[in-house]
Amino acid sequence: MVKYVQTGKNTDSNAESSNVKKNYNLPWIEKYRPQTFEDIVGNEDTIHRLSIFSKKGNVPNIIVAGPPGVGKTTTILCLAKILLGPSFKDAVLELNASNDRGIDIVRNKVKMFAQQKVTLPPGRHKIIILDEVDSMTDGAQQALRRTMEIYSNTTRFALACNYSEKVIEPIQSRCAVLRYSKLSDAQVLARIIQICQKENVNYTEDGLEAIVFTAQGDMRQALNNLQSTHNGFEIVNSQNVFKVCDEPHPMLIKDMLKSCSNGDIRKAYKVIEHLWNLGYAAEDIIKNIFKVTKTMDMEESLKLAFIKEIGITHLRIADGLCSLIQMSGLLSRLCIQAKMQSVD
Ligand SMILES: Nc1ncnc2c1ncn2[C@@H]1O[C@H](COP(=O)(O)OP(=O)(O)OP(=O)(O)O)[C@@H](O)[C@H]1O
Ligand SMILES: [Mg+2]
Question: Which family does the record assign (predicted)?
Fold first, then answer.
């Protein structure tokens, strides 16, 4: 069924705070979904460009592409609210991956909405939001091509996706493609500190660092992890965060990597064996080893050699070789790399 979005009529600068007051029981990701461009963190250049478009009114068709949880859907909703204000309800059609978006829906509902007459201020257009467009079949995307052109004097399309390569070329050529990148650790940290203050969260510095570490630039993940830890424990510290996220503690991994740099395979093996006995999957362990290595303070050339070996093991794990022997093999190769570099 086609869904007409009716939420969020606030466009004033106090929108976020009034939104906060109304929604006590919402998950924080929704409670703190930015309502204006100023509240969206990161990707400043793109957002600045969009805010200029939104003032002038004549926005092109756009595709926002990027990793999950960085504000793509939020940006498009903000844009539509700014452009359409009170007409948002009648002039926006939002379809996401939870709607049926086969070729028939494109031929009927999308086309019908594009044909509909809605009275808007001059220079404004109806907006069709196709979220998660990369999950639409090629056939359905093909069916959009002509519709996008024929109704271009009354309707604009705003598309969001994780993988722009899954959007067919002809659609990409009809749109301005805006690419979002992951948020930086500092941007995620600043936002979660703000929210901790608003929600009176009891936190420690290492707790917030742990949230930032587990989120890896995904703001949605950061807020979810923060809220889960806050609800489950009295205090947000690193131990509690890693319990909630059920990830191997990076301090353990850091110790293990340090032992490898010192060529001490026995000590390193003890850590991996411990993690293995705790029941972590090889995939989780290897991902964490990579995350920790990336930010570890070590010689650049050794870091690169480590990452190369980690990549090879990740490939094997992805191929299905998820055994402790593979992980031990990685440690031994890391030790060899460290020894070779110390000889050079
Ligand atoms: N740049 C950001 N600034 C502030 N909050 C953000 C930002 N990005 C994400 N969030 C938070 O995360 C939630 C989810 O963001 P959003 O729905 O925009 O993600 P998305 O990029 O569309 O992800 P997906 O690819 O999974 O659809 C928002 O409600 C908001 O609380
Ligand atoms: Mg989205």
Answer: Belongs to the activator 1 small subunits family.
